[in-house]
Amino acid sequence: QVHLVESGGGSVQAGGSLRLSCVASGRTYAMGWFRQAPGKEREFVAAFTWSGSTTAYAGSVKGRFTISRVNAENTAYLQMNSLKVDDTAVYYCAARAAGWRTTVEYDYWGQGTQVIVSS
Fold first, then answer.
1. Residue pLDDT, tens place only, 48-67
2. Going by C-beta distance under 8 Å and a sequence separation of 6 or more, which residues neighbour residue 27?
């Protein structure tokens, strides 16, 4: 069992920035960020493999969001710049034990952190 703890959500005006953090209690194959807006399905945002071999972004955030990691600390970050109102959602950190996915089939999930972007 791997526990994930997110932090860093909040409220920001459109065009602003936020950085989310996720600390994992153990090492897995991959970690990702997902988000879920009210009334919508949970969607992929970004992910990486701890080996560094693979990184991916959703088209809607590419060029604005950056996922990074500190391997020694089992910590993942999501730097979000040029935020838009449409980025408003609960953001979840997730970890996958094996195999690469950019869909929601991840094994472990954090509790979520709210991001609100106002116009």
1. 999 888 999 999 999 999 99
2. 50, 74
